[in-house]
Specification:
By secondary structure, this protein is of the alpha+beta class. It is built from one helix and two strands. The longest helix has 12 residues, at about 45-55.
């Protein structure tokens, strides 16, 4: 967990950041998804949310991209 610097104008609430690293099928690139929340007591629920998001990620060639 992270906390803002004491001299920051950001509210002094702990910040939970959860990261998911997804390798691209070409093994040359990586997608990183990050979910941040101040609701640190609900970390397991936020992890479950990120897992559900990760399951929807697809690596597809964009429309109009060269073959």
């Amino acid at each position: 967990m992270l906390c803002p610097a004491a001299n920051s104008s950001v509210p002094q609430l702990p910040l939970l950041q959860i990261h998911a690293h997804l390798p691209h099928p070409d093994c040359k690139r990586l997608a990183v998804l990050t979910l941040s929340t101040t609701a640190t007591a609900r970390r397991e629920e936020y992890r479950a949310i990120l897992r559900q998001v990760v399951e929807t990620v697809r690596f597809e060639k964009p429309l109009g991209a060269d073959s």
